[in-house]
Amino acid sequence: MTALVLGPHLRHVSVHTATIWVETDRACEVRVVNGEHGLDASARTFTVHGHHYALVEIDGLDGGARIPYEVVLDGETVWPEAASEFPASQIRTLDPDGGLRISFGSCRRSPGTPEQFGHDALAAFAHRLRADPGVTWPDILLMVGDQVYADELSDDMRAFIRGRRGPDEPPVDEAADFEDYTHLYKLAWLTDPAVRWLLSTVPTFTIFDDHDIRDDWNTSFAWREEMWSQPWWRARITGGIASYWIYQHLGNMSPDGRAADPVYKAVRTASENGGDAGQILDEFAEQADKEPASTRWSYAHDWGGTRLIVVDSRCSRLLTADRRGMLDDEEFRWLDGQCQGGMDHLLIASSLPYLLPRAIHHAEAWNEAVAGGAWGKTGARLGEKVRQAADLEHWAAFERSFREVAGDVIAVGRGERGPAPASISFLSGDIHYSYLARVVTPGTRSEITQIVCSPLRNPLVGKFRWANRIACSRATSGSFRLLAKLSGVPVPPLRWRMTDGPWFDNAIATVEMSGRDCRVRWETPRDGVTLGEMGRASVTG
Is residue 203 part of a domain? Predict the structure, then answer.
C-alpha cells in the first residue's frame, strides 16, 4: 500500500482555487476528494533523489468555502487518519467580501522539550482552533523564516545522520545534503500531530531565513568565499535550496505561476518520462546561489483590499567584491514595481526586520561602513569579524538598500503611486522577540509600522535577552548613532520608535484587516495547548 510520508499541506489558495501538497513513499496518483461536494482533483507525483511529491490543484471552488477533504493514493484513502483526535481537514478558500486575517511567526525548533525551547506557539494555536468552536480562524498562516534548523540539530536528527556517515565527517553536527534536509522537514512538520493537522487545514505561505540553510547565510562576500572554499558546501547549498523549492517555495506560487515556471515543467517532464529530477534541481539550486538574479523567491498576492509582498532577503542578495545590497538589481526593480497604492493595506513580509530597535540599527549601519573601509583596512578586517560574530546583517547593514525601500514606502504613503493605503506594515521575525514600531517622520497619509513576531519556539535566554532589552531602550541609540555618523553614515530617511514590546516569549501574531482598519495581536502559549494574549495594538490608530 502506498503511504503518505508528509502532508497533506494546504498551500496557496485564492477565492476559487486551492493547492494540496504531499510527499509519498512511492510514485503514485494522488487524489483529493469529497463526494458530497463533487470534489475530485488529482495529480501524478514527481521524483527528486528518490523522493516522491505532488501538488494537487483544485479550481472552481466557491469563495469562502469550507470543504472537508480526503487524500487518496492509488485508490486507497490515507487521510484523514482513522485514529486522529482532530477534526477533518478542510480546504478553506478566501472570502472576497470579508476582511483578511494573517497569523504569522518565525524561528521554530522542533522536535524538543519545553525545558529546551519552551512551549510551541504553533501547536498551541492548532489546539485552540480545534477546541474552540467560536474562535475566528486565520485566512492565512505566514511563516517568515527558520522553518527548519539545518545547523542546530535535534537529537533525533543527529541519530539520523549517524546512520548515514561518521560523526567527524564534515559538516560536523549539521545537515549535509538533500537527504538530510528531507528528514529535517519530517521532524519539523510530522512530529507533533497538532502542527500536522494545522498545516493540512490552514492555507500556509513561507519564506526562508538563514537557519533554513546555515547561520548568517549570505552575510557578506567574504562569507560566501569562505563557504565555497569548503569541499562539502556544494552538496549543502544545493540540498538546502532544492529542498526549499520542493517543501516550501512551490506552495507559495499560484497555479498559473507554477504552470509558467520552467523548473517545475522540467521536473514534471522528467518524472513523466520515468526519470528522477534530482540533477535538474541540483543544477538549478547551484545557479540560484551563484547567480541570484536567475531566480525569484519573492512573491506577491492581492487578496481583496490587501496586497501581501513577501521579500526574499537571503538568497537574492547582491554580494560582490565591489557592491553589496540586500536585494540584487532585478529583485529591487520587482519590489519597486509591487510597492503601489490603490490598496487599503500594503504588507511587506521580510524574514529580517526592516525597522530594528534604533540602537541596533545604528550599530549595524556603523559596522557596514567600517567593514567597507571607512576606518581603513585594519578597521575593515575587524568590522568583517564583528559582522559575522554578532550577526550584523539586517536591512540596516545594507544602508543603500534600506534607503531605497524607504523611498518606495514614503512614495506609496504620500499617495504618489495611487491612493495611499491606510497602513503599510512590515511583517518580520528572526530576532527572537516581538514588538511594534511606528514611523514618526516623515509624515505620510499611511501609517507605517514594523510588526515583529519571533520566535514561535526558540526563545532568547540569559545575557542575550538582557542585551537586547537594553538595546531596545531609547537611551542607548544616541551613542550608536554617533558612531555611525563618525563613519560617514547619513541620517536615516525614516525616524521610528518602538511603541509596543519588546516581548521575549514564544509567540504567534495575528494581523486583522477590515476595511481601512488594521489591528494586531500577539499570543503566547501558557502551556502546550492554550494561548494567552501578550499584547495588542491598533496599527491604523
Answer: no
Instruction: Give the residue from 258, 274, 296 where a domain finishes.
Output: 296
| Coil vs helix vs strand at 142 | strand
Burial readout 491-503 (b: 16 or more C-beta within 10 A, e: otherwise): ebebebebebbbb
Whole-model pTM above 0.90? yes
Tell me: do 274 and 349 sit in the same domain: no
Q: Running along the chain, 541 residues long, what does each successive block of 10 average in pLDDT?
A: 96 97 98 94 98 98 96 97 92 92 98 96 97 92 98 96 94 97 98 97 98 96 96 98 98 97 98 96 98 96 96 96 94 98 98 97 96 93 91 95 98 98 98 97 96 97 90 90 95 96 97 97 96 97 80
- Grid cell of 351 as nine digits: 524574514
Backbone angles phi, psi at 223, to 5 degrees: -65, -45
Q: Mark whether 461 and 521 lie in a shared domain.
A: yes
The pLDDT value given to residue 252: 98
Beta strands in 429-471 (DSSP E): 434-441, 447-452
Q: How many CB atoms lie within 10 A of CB 231?
A: 7
Burial of 435 (0-12, 13-18, 19+ CB in 10 A): buried
Place of cell 499617495: 415
Domain assignment present for residue 166? The answer is no
Phi, psi of 480 (to 5 degrees): -75, -30
Residues 304 and 263 in one domain: no
Shared-domain flag, residues 131 and 229:
no
